[in-house]
Amino acid sequence: MDDFGVGFSSLSRLQLLPISELKIDRSFVQFFQEDSQDAAIVEAVALLGRRLGIRVVAEGVEDLSCLALLEAFGCTHVQGYGLARPMSAEAILEVGSTQDSMRASSAAQGESLGSTP
């Protein structure tokens, strides 16, 4: 469910539709490190997603310094310009192969795979 928390995305939709992913709207994610209300919303939606057994995506991540907190809240995925700008399919394949080697290196050093974007 895209843009969860705004517009037509509501809790009742979670009961009616077979949802496999919640995408927390960027309006909550953008300033959650500075705004305690936004942080509470992001954390609550992430907890809801975990309890329902579905993937939780934080939209609008522009600063990678927030990744550890998003992971602590339970967001399983992130998207935004902080990770990459829109790109062609060929460029995505190149980034993916680079990420694989970064993840292998992190795993070999005993780091959490979640620490690598």
UniProtKB/TrEMBL annotation:
Signal sequence coordinates: none
Domain EAL as annotated: residue spans: 1-100
Highest taxon above the source species: Bacteria
TM segment ranges: none
PANTHER family, per database record: CYCLIC DI-GMP PHOSPHODIESTERASE PDEF, SIGNALING PROTEIN YKOW
The protein's name: EAL domain-containing protein
